[in-house]
Amino acid sequence: MSLAHGRHYLAIPGPSVMPDRVLQAMHRPAPNIYFGELADMTESIVTDLKTVAQTKHNVAIYICNGHGTWEASLANTVAPGERILVLATGRFGFGWAETAARMGIIVETIDFGKRSTLDPDRVRDALNADTEKQIKAILVTQVDTATSIRNDIAAVRAVVDDADHPALLMADCVASMGCDRFEMDAWGVDVAITASQKGLMTPPGLGFVFFNDKAEAVQKSLKVTSNYWDWQPRAYPEELYQYFHGTSPTHHIFGLRAALDILVHEEGMEAAWARHATLARAIWAACEAWGSTGSLELNVPNPALRSHAVTALRIGSPDGTRLRDWLSENAGVTLGIGLGMAAPGDDAWHGFFRIAHMGHVNAHMVLGVLGTIEAGFTALDIPHGKGALEAAAAICARNP
Ligand SMILES: *Cc1c(COP(=O)(O)O)cnc(C)c1O
Q1: Nearest by Cα to 315 from 353, 362, 271, 371
Q2: Ligand 1 touching residue 65 (CB < 6 A)
């Protein structure tokens, strides 16, 4: 007998849980792609996406995943042979760097490790060393989903301004947008990227590249931009097909419209960020209590540097895998695997897991996941401290 029957909770950092309203909105025959509802809806989505990113500037929408936005953002800003600086705090930072390298861009990567944020002094040194101002863009991941480190993007802007460096500041917000506070214009971000399947609660398949006037001017100065990635017609379409450089992602648009209704119009960004912050603190409180005995440990020691959308944990091999397997077989919960922490063939790989708490997630879901982890620890005889669930409940109870 298994206790897993019932609604499954996919608690992995993307794809995230989709609201029933998003699913229902997509369940329809193909719509007219020339005019009418779909066209109006696409315009309204552009407006709401800008609210999510807190920008007055532009957004280009692509039929792609987050990896596609890595390429799209670079294709419009950096030519082959030009230089960029990547600030890596986990696997995803390196992923964006690899994309750039494959595009013929010269990449300098600063690796800040897996457990802490970037060091502004090292960024300053790298920019000061670039006396001829050849670095065209600085790439930073707001939340690295592998390590769950959250970087202070405004602090990077301050360093760039201090160094009086003209490089574009580009932020990967795939894991964080809609979950962690992000203010593109106020923080001086020139290009921001995200995708549909995390904080935006929609199936994977849509990628978004936000860009300001400074980035737009850089794009116009490039000798060539690939026809497909060119953000100009997508941001300034004269016909509907130009939004997507071809057939619209029809059903995704209906789904995203429903998701943005929920996020932007019903809850609002401030409340959504606050909800994610409180639920994250409930998870950390439980993990700290468990970790008081035994080997469970939050990957990011400093709470101020932790993502509000995903929490990476260390527990020692093979208990990470044992726990994940137990939860999916017995409790109807799928936890995230450790990513980029150890090589997949290595024994140590089994010593990590992640809890996603991004998007359509509320107190009962988070407390449910924590309760089933507690059951898993007990069932598997994994040593753990007491009082985790009480600590998490207390955080939820204190929420105004
Ligand atoms: C998920 C993610 C990506 C990649 O997105 P895919 O849709 O899997 O291609 C990139 N960056 C970050 C920070 C992510 O969390």
Answers
A1: 353
A2: yes
